[in-house]
Amino acid sequence: METPANSTKDNSGYESAEKIILRWDSTASEVGRERMIFGTDRQEADFYLQAVDEIQRSLSSASISDCSHNVDADNQSKVKTTIQIAMARLEDEFRNILIIHTSALEIDSLFDSSTSFSSSTPTHHDLEDDEDCISDDSGSSRNNLLQLHHCESSDSSTYRTSSSIREVDLMPAEAICDLQAIAMRMIAAGYLRECIQVYGSVRKSSVDSSFRKLGIEKLSIGDVQRLEWEALEGKIRRWIRAARVCVRILFASEKKLCEQIFDCVGTDIDDACFMETVKGPAIQLFNFAEAISISRRSPEKLFKILDLHDALMELLPDIEAVFDSKSSDSIRVQAAEILSRLAEAARGILSEFENAVLREPSRVPVPGGTIHPLTRYVMNYISLISDYKQTLIELIMSKPSTGSRYSGDPSTPDMEFTELEGKTPLALHLIWIIVVLQFNLDGKSKHYRDVSLAHLFMMNNVHYIVQKVKGSPELREMIGDDCLRKLTGKFRQAATSYQRATWVSVLYCLRDEGLHVSGSFSSGVSKTALRERFKTFNAMFEEVHRTQSMWLIPDGQLREELRISISEKLLPAYRSFLGRFRSHIESGKHPENYIKYSAEDLETAVLDLFEGYPAS
């Protein structure tokens, strides 16, 4: 395109220029109403721009001296009117070029590009939601991939050096040249505000269209906070994927287009047009994350908040690069403040979770002494926390003070942190949650009327804790082998306590004391006492068998180990007792009423224990 020349004006040049301007006046000319100058006849477009330059030179000359160049006051007014007509026409042309070259972006391709070029690994929940991602299988989708540019020129803006940002060419080069040429004339004539407004309104509509395709809804902070959490979880997943596209591709490409059109026109004009276009959409985008960051805290929100935090932390360098001007300070500040609030929310939720575990109020014993729902919930929660190890280590900066935590309060457990020197603050949090969980479980065990069942309950639950720690390499590393050994010792102690509470009294029936007639130890056996002893043993064993077959040890290996331990104590004692006293019973009447079981029968019966249903 022609650029403004510095030649002097003569009357013939002005009159020719004026004719061209008036010929395309859409308010007075039929051809001006029916046709657009740009995009049809390149020569006409060049002539029109030359005419605008000529009129502008006339106006500049008239401003220097009203009397020079034969320009009187009337003629000066006429020149101003002509330039106004020209600017109105250029504004229409500018708008038309923007509109006809604004095409729908291939959102599928944008998702693929943003994912492929992400500098960070997906979050735990991103991996869970892979099936929700936009499909890339069709050939047409691949053919429609937008052309991506790596801007490597030495004079490129700083933000283009980020490996995660990929700029899309939003308009063809010829259209950009036309827009640049028009913008130069409008700004030179004092129509900067009109130029920015037209540009912003058209491009913002395009950005809004892309937002709709990305699934970004126009929700106020209040709207977001009124939604049920289940609905928000899906929206958070979509927001994370969409935010990557918006910052790294959509906003970056809009900034590139502004620079291509306006960078050579004047200082900060490209920034003004960029913010006119994307400020509203950017605020809309980040308002969603802000609403989540200040929403009511609850344990189930932690992991989505961490996903949001990680995604925003990953995007922050790109946000700072794309919104790097003074006029876009507010966007950078908003993103940084949201990140800070998300971090604070995560810390708060973790702290509140500790208290929730401690205060969980359920008093109804779980049937059969099996694993309490609280234990499952807390340990699954802790396992997920370990998946966010790196993020949480960075968020939890303050280490609990050494010495006893909550010491002296009977409603809370004590924990000596001096034994845990060298642990990260996150590891101490997790160990403390496990300590709190055990404390709560111990309280729940006291609601069982049967002391044996209380011990079995603790054995089951602490064993579950141990297995969950062992099953997560990250969690095991943080908890440490010393703590794991202590936990293992606790469930084994609970198993020993169960055996004592249940089987000592049963085995007590198989002692010799009380069966011999006084003064005749070698041969004097009281058959009456012996019969009572067998009857007592039979009744006690049957009661244990009847009751404890309905108790449950869900872990097969633990169940088998406890049965073996019981058999190793019971069967030798019974065989020995039977061997010593069988003949005294069998020599009397109805021996089957007293010797009801063989050792093999007991061994089989022990296999019925802890299955969780009545034995046959």
Automatic annotation (TrEMBL):
Residues 118-138 are annotated as: Disordered. The keyword Protein transport applies. It comes from the Eukaryota. InterPro entries: Cullin_repeat-like_dom_sf, Exo70, Exo70_C. Gene3D superfamilies: Exocyst complex component Exo70 (1.20.1280.170). Keywords: Exocytosis, Protein transport, Transport. Residues 238-607 form the Exocyst complex subunit Exo70 C-terminal domain. Pfam families: Exo70_C, Exo70_N. Component of the exocyst complex. Belongs to the EXO70 family. This is Exocyst subunit Exo70 family protein. It comes from Gossypium arboreum (Tree cotton). The lineage of its organism: Eukaryota, Viridiplantae, Streptophyta, Embryophyta, Tracheophyta.
